[in-house]
Amino acid sequence: MPKHDQAMRRHFHEAAARRGFSVSPAQEPAVERLCRLAAELARPAWTFPAPPRDLYVWGPVGRGKSWLVDTFYEGLPAGRKRRLHFHDFFRRLHDGVGGPGARHDGQSAVDSALDELIGDSRVLVFDEFHAHDAGDAMLIARLFRTLLDRRITLVTTSNYPPAGLMPDPLYHHLFEPTITLIEQRMDVLDVTGPVDFRRLAAPPPTGDGRRFATGLCLPAGHTGLEALGLTVPAPAEATAVQAHLRELPARAVRGELVWFGFEALCEATTAVPDYLALAERFDTLVLDGVPPLTAASADGRQRFANLVDVACDRDVRLILIGSDPLTALPADQALTRDLDRTASRLALLQRVS
Length: 353
Ligand SMILES: Nc1ncnc2c1ncn2[C@@H]1O[C@H](COP(=O)(O)OP(=O)(O)OP(=O)(O)O)[C@@H](O)[C@H]1O
Ligand SMILES: [Mg+2]
Fold this sequence. Notes:
binds adenosine-5'-triphosphate
């Protein structure tokens, strides 16, 4: 058993070194706990009276939580493990429940969609755990029940401590039973380090190592677009792009790059499954006509925040042309959920003036 523990510890330190940083003091307890979990998971399930305890890793944005759980996931042996991102989870459940192959009785439709998602895994890594409405509350409660029944260990990250989940007072009470379950069942680890790593003045020498961090933010009418390989689309390049259950009007598609106007992608009625579909097909997304976020509609802002979340998780390069979203954040943070998360992600884009 200690050998799995040590192998995972080595894996963490090597993964950090490859990115040009070292595990921070605030991350250490989580690394230790994840190493212990790796050793526990290496034992045959029947040797355990109960499955290894679940882990809830939370803290403010950019503290390296996703890096911790993704590195842990990567270091586990292949098979019997699943990783899900919040948006992915809801899209797949909604597809399973409402999709063409779905059964019509609501409860069993959710259950069979969950079955499909979880498969025969022993551990489920769920990145970005949050809940904002009654629908989320129901689906997450069901996920928990299924994991408990199936003896599957859950490892999750969140920007909220368990008691702070579902912040809307209108719905909070709906989530209280799940919060109690989280507090009873999960080991809660706080990784509130002093800095948002995405905002470090000097990025690590090897960079973030991900495509998302090579994204750009440029003012409208920038004269150096061509030098950056970004020729403004000719009207004839306009084309419809198949997204989730609809086509979206793109300004251009060039190989792995898709170019949209902000209006078409964020002010029209698009949704997260559309962004996921685009992220599956393209590795670069150019968005022009980005207005000051204060001038966008509330829905437009929320869609933009969701788009940034998806692009970051799926490692899509974002090129924003127009107003820098970070310089015009709505003063009332409550207007757009989790805007600090969007801002932290956008801080990774290079500013070209
Ligand atoms: N110890 C560290 N030192 C420097 N950079 C780090 C460290 N740990 C992680 N990072 C880097 O910091 C960035 C943010 O990490 P990560 O995405 O894991 O944050 P997070 O806590 O999940 O943020 P959020 O709550 O916004 O999802 C990533 O580029 C990651 O590679
Ligand atoms: Mg994260």
